[in-house]
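Dear Dr. H.,

I hope your travels went smoothly. While you were away I took the liberty of generating a structure for the chain from your last submission, since the lab meeting agenda had it listed for discussion. I wanted you to have the full record in hand beforehand rather than looking at slides cold. The sequence, exactly as received, is reproduced here:
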Amino acid sequence: MTAETMADHWWWRPGWKPGRRFYTWHFTFRTATEVHRLADAYRRGLAEVAGLDLVPDRWLRLTMQGLGFMDEVPEQDARAIADAARRRLAGVAPFGLRLHQPEITPEAIRWEAEPSEPPAAVRAAVRAAIADVWDDVPEPADGFAPHVTIAYSNSDGPADPVAPP
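The corresponding predicted structure, in token form, is as follows:
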């Protein structure tokens, strides 16, 4: 998928304000030197492109599942959900992911992670852990596309500067 236009990723979504925090599960890549090496190559290639915020290694992540704003989620619920997730995920075997050619979306440039089934299974386990504690699980179950963002668009405009020739 390649977007024809870019849109500002940093618009204020409902409920967000400066200093407000949100509970979310992520896969992080702190010690993934191959991911850092690949990201560095893309950052160097995109460094002169206006309108992008490049993601540094420490912020590379694959977002799994949101829970809610910290000021709206009781701490005891967050702890109970984390404990349930720990139990449900204890038997999940480690797996590898491939990060393919970047995809241009309206708000970002990102790698799709493959295979998608292992992260989807982790997300399903986290969602089941939330359901162990709450009647309603936030965020839709469908539409999950595991990806790692390389750069966020910080303005509206054509995608031509980031699109491959």
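Two observations you may find useful: DSSP finds three helices and nine strands in the chain. The mean pLDDT is 94.

With kind regards,
E. W.
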